[in-house]
Structures are given as structure tokens and as C-alpha cells.
Design a protein that fits this description.
Radius of gyration: 22 Å
Shape: elongated
Oligomer: single chain
Order of helices and strands: HEEEEEHEEEEEEEEEEEEEEE
Strand content: 35-45%
CATH architecture of the largest domain: Sandwich
Distance between the termini: 53 Å
Number of domains: 2
Number of helices: 2
Amino acid sequence: MKKFTFILFLLVSQKIYSQCYDASYCLDFEDTLCNYHVNIDTTIYPGNIFQIGSAHNPVLDSTFCSSVVIMTDTAMPYPVNNHSVFTIINQATSGDVFGFKMFSGSYYVQSDYLNDYGTMEISLDKGITWIDLMDSAYSNNFLWWTSKPVLTGHSYTCKSFEVDMVNLISIHNFGMGDTILYRFSFFSDSTFDNMGGLVFDNICFNDFVEGISDIHFKPIKSVIYPNPSSGNFSIDFDNPDGEPFELAVYDICSKGMMTREGITSGKTVIDCHEFKPGMYVYKITNTESKKRTWGRFNVTN
């Protein structure tokens, strides 16, 4: 009986730790655990050339990205008059609905500057409406921490992108468990250019939330300085009425690092002498008045 119980425990443990959770996961494509989130549709797009695999396309630069990626054909230059698409399918979690979701990844592009290009879009209504993530009209919803990806021309190397998906509920009303789609597209014209096309790797989604909540927050302004720093960071935020706010700090993988309650002034300080070098996220929240601000800071050696 003891042996049977131990084996059952191992099986259950393996099942638990092999799951890929929508709240926080990465697609590095070398580990196929989370690849079920990815759909490369060849029915709607019969000429779809997006593939997951080890790139051995001879026209690529040697510094394009890691070995196993998702790209427009791992072996051949992209063809003319092509429209290729892959979609990432997520279920909305608390980060999408009540907090914010960090969406990041790497890309490489090698294409004609004029007419061959890629796009990145999101749909909150199961594909009925698509919104370009680089559209400046949604600057209050998509907060870019890096430069927006330039998905045309020649990047020469693998570049990173990071964007916070905040206040998505103001774009379209949705709830926990509803489908959120991310669509990555590539288009080519009628001229053959003998180029590699578009590559993506290390696509990650991470929730940043205070916990279980049903509050939709109103954003307020804040600024953190000096940034970067190896010591203390000061945060100034809008609090003219002296309301009590809570500070929460997370590492870039959404692990909670510290909290502080009862901040009634419009200023607080984070002591980061014990933090490892890297990027961190802060959130300052008042659940009663439904106000919140957030930002990012970089701890150096």
C-alpha cells in the first residue's frame, strides 16, 4: 500500500508540475510543454509557412535568434504573395481582467522594407475584432517598455519587446476564462527578395495582480527615480487627498518581492539593496477609491 501511494503521489505531482498556466508561461519552442497554445492554421491560410523548428535557412544572419523558434519557413526564403499567420490562444486570467498582463518576447526580421512586413494583434472577442498592438490610439491600454517592434526591413540581430496590457476591459468587456487571441502575421508582395522573413522566440505572458479581486481600477500618474539605481528608488504619485495606498513590488517573473500598506502621502521609497540586479515592477493601489498606478525600475550592481 505504501509503494502504491508513493507511485500515485509521483504521478499526481508530475501532472501538476507539467501543466502550462495561462497566468504565467513562456513559449521558448525548445520545450514543447506550452506549444498547445499555438495554432498555425493551414485551412484558412493554405499558404501558411510559419513553422516551429530549428532554423537552418542559409540567408539568415548568424545572430538572428536561438536555435528552435517559430518563423516563416525554417529552411527556405519566404515566397511571393504570401500571407502567413500563427495565433496564440489564451484564457483570460486575473491579470488580464483586473491587474495587468506583461507580454514579452524576441523577434528577428529580414524582409524588403517597402512591401513585406509583419503585424502583431490582439482580439478580446474571439477573433471578431483585431487591434494592432502598435496602434498609438491604444497607448493607454498597451504600455511599451521597449521600442515597438519594427516588423519590416532587416533587424540584423534578435531584438526584444515588452509591453504591459493594462485596462483591457475598457476596450471590450470580458471575464475570467474568456478567450484572448494574439495574432502574428507576415505579408509579402509579388517581388522575390531571397530573404528569411519573420522570426519569434521566448514569447512570455505574466500576470501582475494584488490577488483575487473584482475591482476595475482607475489609473493615476506616478514617476520613479533615479532609474536605474543600485540603492533606493523614490516614487511620486498622485494622492492629493492623503488616501491610504498599498505598494507591491514584483520581479520580472511576477514573483512578489515586498508589500507596504498605509502610504498616505504622495511619495514612498523602495530600498533595493537586497534585490538582485534586474528589472522589477511596482504597483500602488487603493482598493476603496479604485485607484492604481504602476511602473518599472531597473536594479543595477
